[in-house]
Amino acid sequence: MIQTFNQSNFKIVCDTLAAGDADLAAIITTCGYPPMWSRLNTFETLVHIILEQQVSLASALSALNKLKERIQEITPARVLLLTDDELRACFFSRQKTAYVRYLAEAIVSGYINLESLAGLPDENIRAQLTALKGIGNWTVDIFLMFVLHCADIFPAGDLAAINALKRVKGVTQSTCREQAAAIAEKWKPYRTIATMILWHFYLASPKPSK
Q1: Could you tell me where the DSSP H helices lie in the chain?
Q2: What is the mean pLDDT of each run of 10 residues along the chain (210 residues)?
Q3: Nearest alpha carbon to residue 111 among 122, 120, 102
Q4: What's the Cα-to-Cα distance from 104 to each of 6, 101, 132, rounded to whole Å?
Q5: Any idea of the CA torsion for 182, 208, 194, 188, to the nearest 10 degrees?
Q6: Distance from C-alpha of 109 to C-alpha of 194, rounded to nearest angstrom
Q7: What is the per-residue pLDDT across 116-158, written as a single tens digit (0 to 9) for each?
């Protein structure tokens, strides 16, 4: 059993999941293996994830690129030099301006050290990050999955994962996220990789008509 995953064992875990779940096997057969989504453990990455909260991935990336265009390197110190108006000019909402500024201040003050998080249990990482304004469980889930490559995370707050699971498992659209998370329990201890297979299906498949 693995606790983290990497490029060398990612497809092996995909095959393990497929062997135990015909629906996941069908996705891999039809769509191929999913990408192993990965991001660096940096302030920029957490800013990016905050920007992705409740908006399209394209909108979040546009804001991140606009910020990078303005300050070149996205660091806490450089972000703190910007005014609220300058951040708004980078497509940051009022709330996300506050969240990113709060995160930058927490890192500059030494309240949180991103590098030190890598060696901690998942629950400790979650406790430290959710103590910061604007960082909730979804943001931590994505950080654990993409940055620290924790193998057993199911992001119950992720609409794409939930909707893909409903379609793959043939359950009703009224199925709540708690019920969807219960269905995902069968994928332990590799729920992160199962979620990546679901995302792959979601991105590759035409969306059902309303």
Answers
A1: 10-20, 22-31, 43-51, 57-71, 76-80, 84-88, 94-108, 114-117, 122-130, 137-142, 159-169, 177-184, 191-204
A2: 89 98 98 97 98 94 97 97 97 97 97 92 95 96 97 95 95 89 96 98 74
A3: 102
A4: 29, 5, 10
A5: 10
A6: 37
A7: 998 899 999 999 999 999 999 999 999 999 999 999 999 999 9
Distances (CA, A) of 6 to 124, 145, 160, 185: 22, 11, 23, 22
State the sign of the Cα–Cα–Cα–Cα dihedral 5, 10, 14, 19. negative
User: What single-letter amino acid sits at 102?
Assistant: Y
- CA–CA separation, 72 and 95 (whole Å): 23
Amino acid in the structure at residue 139: T
Coil, helix or strand at residue 175: coil
